[in-house]
Amino acid sequence: MEISQEMINKITAMNDAELKKAIGQIADALGASQSQKRMAVNNAGFIKRKINKMSKSEMQTFVSKVPPEKAEELKKTLGL
Fold first, then answer.
1. What is the SS3 assignment for 9?
2. How far apart, in whole angstroms, are the C-alpha atoms of residue 79 and residue 21?
3. What is the mean pLDDT of residues 1-12?
4. How many CA atoms lie within 13 A of 14 on its CB side?
């Protein structure tokens, strides 16, 4: 999945409730355990700050580790 500036902008523009929901859906799509999902959702602010600090290439490297079929599911989850 190719990361675009539009994707980054959409994620960073989410309010806390939207971001927590998206993080939960992403965790489900990636097969995270319930405890992993809960930890990620509870750290939504931290995740948003990390995304804001990441360069496009850093984000691309991170996303490239996601299997292609999961990447498509993530795009749908985020409405991209």
1. helix
2. 13
3. 79
4. 23
Q: Are 78 and 22 in contact (CB under 8 A)?
A: yes
Residue type, 27: A
Q: What is the DSSP string of 16-77?
A: HHHHHHHHHHHHHHTT--HHHHHHHHHTHHHHHHHHHHS-HHHHHHHHTTS-HHHHHHHHHH
Cα dist. 51→4, 5, 34, 61, 69 in Å? 13, 12, 23, 13, 22
Tallying the residues shown for the chain, one arrives at 80
Question: What stretch of H or E contains 10?
Answer: helix 5-13
The single residue listed with the structure tokens 């996601």 is: 66
Q: Span 72-78, mean pLDDT?
A: 76
- Residue 73: its pLDDT value, please? 76
Whole-structure pTM over 0.90, yes or no? no
